[in-house]
Amino acid sequence: MTDTNDTKKIEAIDCKDVVRRLYEFIDNELDELTHDQIEHHLNDCRSCLSRHEFETTLKKRVQNAGHEKMPKKTASRLQGLIDKF
Amino acid sequence: MNEKNSSQEDSGDFFKRQIQGLMDSLYGAAVRLTRNPEDAEDLVADAITKAWAARESLTDRDRFRAWIFRILHNTFVSDYRKAKNQPETETYTENPSDEDEDDFSLFDKLHQPFLLWWGNPEQEYVNKLLRENIVDAVNALPDNFRDVVIFIDMEGFSYQEAAEALDVPEGTIRSRLKRRRALLQKELWQQASDAGLDIPDSER
Fold it and tell me: For a designed S-S bond to B188, which of A70, B14, B87, B137 qualifies (C-beta 3.0 to 4.6 A apart)?
């Protein structure tokens, strides 16, 4: 960080920027500075915070929907295959 | 954070150890890709057989997961998607100019700021969604977007790992990002409305 800000002041960003980067924020794919900026904004902005909560919950639901219980028959066939390797 | 030093392990042993831990995940992704459990079983069987035969081609053991999922995905694309004559469900252009598509947001549809303190319609909506609503919505996505949802949202891959597994540049993953969620949410909105999920528009 080449900034001279001695208090490590986080530059404020507006809601539009937060909404634009929110998915990357949730996916944890932002650089540290941008991540902190958004986090900072979320502490102060109820509307963005609700949006964040919503998107996080939805992502979790989608994630859970991806889990499939493997039928026993399938599991034993695949295991049999691996055992032969 | 795999220990580099454990890479002395024989490639066969390493393969078997890794694959055991990933079977559920491979199967889950295969069900989502093929959209049916029988094909999914065959797909996983084919993919791990191919991977086993090609195990010496894995140069970086830390990348085992991306590598094996890449084989799974390639096998799906070449042997299943084509064989089943599943025309690639219309491939959306990556062109981000279609603003309407990009901007759909369930949150914007549902959020009611004036209810802020005593109601939360958007969370209620998510809680009411059924697993099958979500699965149907994911299934309805165009293939190139569905892949990204499966790898990133469902399997929890990083963008870089997903890029490796899907064999596209990381930039492509990022550019599909916003769009894929807008499309997914639009589908969800539709699926849920079709299923008669009551939309908390006129709260009681």
Answer: B137
